[in-house]
Design brief:
This protein has about 800 residues and is α+β, with helices and mostly antiparallel strands. The protein contains 29 helices and 26 strands.
């Protein structure tokens, strides 16, 4: 019953927030029917009823996270995007993240200039340059402009809104520096402050004693701070398949629990009276919760740590009530506790990896032990010397590693688009060094820090060689050419097929397993055939204008199989790679692992910022540009990646043409000579014609270039779809240009509430006056256009104002300009 309840609760938690999949009325009806089934005597129907009711509970519970009903005093009910003064209390020490620092504030008061009122709720304040010292408990006053977390709105993207909602963050703010911040008081929280001081001291001890990156790695292992780790080292851990070692997980907490249990059992066993009157093993297990909770305080209250602590404490509780052998029931109970205490937890990657890894271990070892004992008996290993008996621990260790990796690999493919081939061997040698030896020594240093700093420094020095060797091995594995391979994003059906196959392998036998695997193979072949036909034999041309913030990027899936990416976006942050974080996930979600053409309109950051990653990972065959370059580091990386991949670079100018299968590509600008032209007017302007339909990609051209194109085009500019020039700037989209193009659909690529106020209201009015449907990536998210060979065009917006997700005929989109919502 507990397993059924856990399964239903987790599934309900996973599907919460999207009422288009399962309306609330249908959910209520299902819960009502399940309530009646509870009175049936049949155990199967009662389990089903419990699962359905748990599903309804999990969904309802998590809905309150994704669709909260804010009280009037909540900070999320305050005016957004207006200058305010916020009084709040720091909930933790500042958290370094990439090139900025995060401050977690508990709001207390808001002053909008005319009124001061009490406030509640959390605000995540990001500061680019933090120059002063701020500590947990500080009450500070900050000038802010509040905003809501917002997804880009692209298919296949990471759900940032949901991620922050699960952490209680519905409002964010940004500050360039903290010069205007004012400390107005302090809130005493002795235990919290003591733990934060301990964490700061331990981190400083590691930095004083060890060089980088050993100090950063040990800090990540012990106190959960990985800000000092360089990007290249993070990539190395990822390629080697041992990134989980750097996060405080169940392995670390279990190590603390085990060490605490051993210590308390040894101490309690010193008392003859306790040995005679008490159950010393159970008492030691109960006392092991103390160091576990203390370690959780040292490691910080991040979600993964709290979840690991809950799981370990549940298993300790199972041992206290003599249910330690019922591991599946204990795991189910842990899942129930985690999901009920943290609604939405099932969508967190760490939750999925943790529980699936334990399930893999449970079922893998259940299958392994009978086979191994039989193998041992046949070879009489137990009767031989110690060398023969070494096979058992080695085999168990490898089976544990293989079981966990087999269970988690589909999820790493889903979330990270990577399969680590080196992981089995890397985990076998790295985890004992970093996950066991270094963690044990680092924990001893952390514990000793409270009583003796010289002793803590000694333990840190001893841990240093373990960390150094572990990092060296990680970098060695990462350098292997096939250490990790990129994979396209699996669908829910494909994940179900893989996990069903794994379950059949470990839980079924004989004819049933053969029949089951054969059935799954047929389904997998059908799924593969469908995607293969869609990827390599598509008849339509599909264009996706991606939402990349204040920048441009469009993915063109040409009829047949070729793929073109026009511009690569680029945000202001040097640590946020639009190519890796936005464009690539969309390509992988479309089963695209190779791009044929990269097209750069002109070398400005918001157009080429994401191209370096695409050039490295998608092996483009050709790179089209206007022939000019930039002096930035990212552009140099792009050039290096193109050379490494043997991509053919082509400088394009007006009059050049290319036949891309059944699509005609014509370059309309720039002219052959660029001297005297503004950098925006040097943009490569590309026209793609499929059948009777043309699409015009205009880069950042402004009025002078538009006039030059109109004069040189001889009436050949007419296009059904137009990528609006220069993000909708007032200096572009001139009357003469729009008359020549006469678009039915105009797509503006701009950042949400960007500081340039693009698109300009006058530009919106010009398109509306010509009855062109105006789509905006800042409001609509990704805008997808599908063009059939006969000329039929359908459009789909990521955030349609009616909430629909279906394709709409272009004619219907064009009539929308008469609605009150047009030109939003």
């Amino acid at each position: 019953m507990l397993v059924s309840a856990a399964l239903g609760l987790v599934l309900g938690d996973l599907t919460a927030g999207d009422h288009e999949i399962l309306p609330a009325a249908l959910l209520a009806a299902g819960a009502g029917a399940a309530s009646l089934l509870l009175f049936l005597a049949d155990p199967l129907w009662r389990r089903i009823a419990i699962a359905v009711l748990a599903f309804a509970l999990g969904r309802t519970n998590a809905d309150r996270v994704y669709r909260p009903d804010f009280p009037p005093a909540h900070v999320a009910a305050a005016p957004m995007h207006l200058p305010l003064r916020l009084d709040g209390v720091l909930l933790a020490d500042p958290e370094v993240s990439g090139d900025h620092v995060r401050l977690w504030l508990a709001a207390e008061r808001i002053d909008d200039g005319s009124d001061t009122r009490a406030a509640e709720g959390q605000v995540l304040l990001t500061v680019r340059h933090l120059q002063h010292d701020w500590y947990v408990g500080d009450r500070i006053r900050v000038p802010v402009s509040l905003r809501r977390p917002r997804n880009f709105g692209n298919p296949g993207e990471f759900d940032g809104e949901g991620y922050w909602a699960r952490r209680g963050i519905y409002v964010t703010a940004f500050a360039d520096d903290d010069d205007a911040f004012e400390r107005i008081g302090h809130v005493d929280g002795r235990m919290t402050e003591w733990l934060e001081r301990w964490r700061r001291g331990v981190g400083a001890l590691f930095r004083r004693t060890l060089p980088e990156p050993q100090a950063g790695v040990l800090s990540a292992l012990i106190i959960g701070t990985d800000a000092a780790l360089p990007h290249d080292l993070r990539v190395a851990f990822s390629r080697a398949g041992v990134s989980h070692v750097l996060s405080i997980s169940g392995l670390h907490v279990a190590l603390v629990a085990g060490a605490g249990y051993a210590l308390f059992r040894w101490l309690l066993a010193r008392s003859r009276r306790l040995l005679l009157t008490a159950n010393v093993p159970k008492l030691a297990a109960a006392l092991s919760a103390v160091p576990v909770l203390l370690y959780a305080g040292i490691a910080g209250s991040n979600v993964a740590t709290v979840r690991s602590v809950v799981m370990v404490l549940v298993f300790v509780a199972a041992a206290l009530v003599d249910r330690q052998r019922h591991l599946l029931v204990s795991l189910a109970f842990a899942a129930i506790v985690v999901v009920l205490s943290g609604p939405g937890a099932a969508r967190d990657i760490s939750f999925q990896l943790s529980f699936v890894a334990v399930l893999g271990l449970l079922y893998g070892m259940e299958r392994f032990w009978p086979w191994w004992k039989h193998w041992e008996e046949r070879r009489l290993l137990r009767l031989r010397g110690w060398r023969a008996r070494l096979w058992r621990p080695l085999a168990v260790y490898m089976m544990v590693s293989v079981s966990a990796l087999a269970a988690t690999t589909p999820l790493t493919a889903l979330h990270f688009n990577q399969v680590c081939l080196a992981a089995p061997l890397a985990n076998a040698v790295v985890v004992p060094l970093l996950g066991s030896a270094a963690v044990a020594l680092g924990l001893l240093a952390a514990m000793a820090y409270a009583v003796s700093q010289p002793l803590a420094q000694l333990f840190t020095m001893i841990a240093g060689p373990c960390v150094w060797l572990g990092v060296w091995l990680v970098e060695l594995f990462a350098r292997w050419p096939w250490a990790a391979v990129r994979v396209v994003t699996p669908t829910v059906l494909e994940l179900a097929i893989v996990y069903a196959a794994l379950w059949m392998l470990v839980r079924m036998s004989g004819r049933a397993r053969i029949v089951g695997i054969a059935g799954l193979t047929v389904v997998a072949l059908g799924d593969g055939a469908w995607w293969y036909a869609d990827r390599y034999y598509r008849a339509a041309m599909q264009i996706t204008f991606l939402s990349v913030g204040q920048g441009d990027s469009a993915v063109v899936e040409l009829p047949g199989s070729e793929v073109m990416v026009i511009d690569g976006g680029g945000l202001g942050s040097p640590t946020f790679d639009v190519g890796e974080r936005v464009i690539a996930p969309f390509l992988w979600s479309r089963k695209i692992a190779h791009v044929d053409y990269l097209v750069l309109s002109h070398p400005q950051w918001d157009h080429y910022g994401g191209f370096a990653f695409l050039a490295e990972q998608f092996s483009p065959r050709e790179f089209w540009s206007n022939g000019t370059g930039a002096t930035s580091v990212r552009f140099a990386q792009l050039q290096q990646a193109l050379r490494a991949g043997d991509a053919h670079s082509v400088a394009m100018c007006r009059g050049m043409q290319s036949r891309l299968g059944v699509v005609d590509a014509v370059v309309l600008a720039p002219p052959p000579v660029l001297d005297g032209l503004d950098v925006n007017d040097q943009s490569l302007v590309l026209s793609l014609a499929y059948g009777p339909t043309r699409v015009l990609f205009s880069g950042d051209i402004e009025a002078p270039a538009e006039a030059d194109m109109v004069a040189a085009s001889d009436g050949a500019l007419a296009s059904a779809i137009l990528k609006v020039p220069h993000h909708g700037s007032h200096t572009s989209s001139s009357e003469e240009f729009l008359d020549a193009v006469a678009p039915q659909l105009a797509v503006v690529s701009a950042g949400f509430e960007n500081r340039f106020h693009f698109p300009h209201p006058d530009v919106v009015a010009r398109y509306t006056a010509r009855r062109a449907a105006l789509a905006r990536t800042d409001l609509d998210g990704a805008v997808q256009v599908r063009i059939a060979a006969g000329g039929d065009v359908v459009v789909r917006r990521g955030r349609d104002w009616a909430g629909r997700r279906s394709w709409q005929p272009l004619r219907q989109e064009a009539t929308a300009v008469d609605s009150p919502m047009s030109g939003r």
